[in-house]
Design goal:
single chain, about 130 residues, mainly alpha, 6 helices, elongated
Length: about 130
C-alpha cells in the first residue's frame, strides 16, 4: 500500500502520526526567534495526509520512531543470501525481500494495522 492509502485506511493512526511529525518539526524550531503563537498556528493548521504520505513512500524507516514510541518494535534481519526479513514485536514473517526498503514497507503496513487496533480502545474509553 502507498503511504496515502495507509493513512486513509487507518485514520486513528494517521492522526497520531501527523501529530507526532508536527511536534517533532516544532521541537526542531525551538529557538527564541520562533514565537509560541506561530507554533500554535502550526498546530491549528496541522499537516495534510498527502505531505506525510510522500515522506512514508520515500523513506518508510522514518516511522520507526513513531512505532517505537507506541511499543511496536520492528526489527530487520539480513539473511545469508542477502535478502531481508522482518520481525514486528514477537511476530516474525517467513517472507523475504531483496531490499531493506521493501521489507520495511511491508513492516510499516503491518505496524499501521497494529497501531490502529491499539488506538481503538483508547478512543472508546475517552468517550465515557
Amino acid at each position: 500500500m502507498t503511504g496515502l492509502e495507509l493513512l486513509e485506511k487507518y485514520p486513528l493512526s494517521a492522526t497520531l502520526i501527523r501529530e507526532w511529525f508536527l511536534e517533532k518539526m516544532l521541537d526542531s524550531l525551538n529557538t527564541a526567534s520562533i514565537s509560541d503563537e506561530f507554533k500554535d498556528m502550526m498546530r491549528a493548521s496541522g499537516i495534510e495526509n498527502d505531505k506525510i504520505a510522500t515522506l512514508i513512500d520515500v523513506n518508510p524507516r522514518m516511522l520507526l520512531d513513531v512505532f517505537d514510541d507506541n511499543k511496536i518494535i520492528i526489527e530487520t534481519f539480513l539473511y545469508p543470501d542477502d535478502t531481508f526479513t522482518i520481525k514486528i514485536g514477537s511476530q516474525a514473517t517467513t517472507q523475504s525481500w531483496t531490499t531493506r526498503k521493501e521489507a520495511e514497507l511491508f513492516a510499516i503496513d503491518a505496524a499501521f494495522e497494529i497501531l490502529e487496533n491499539q488506538l481503538i480502545p483508547k478512543e472508546n474509553n475517552n468517550e465515557d
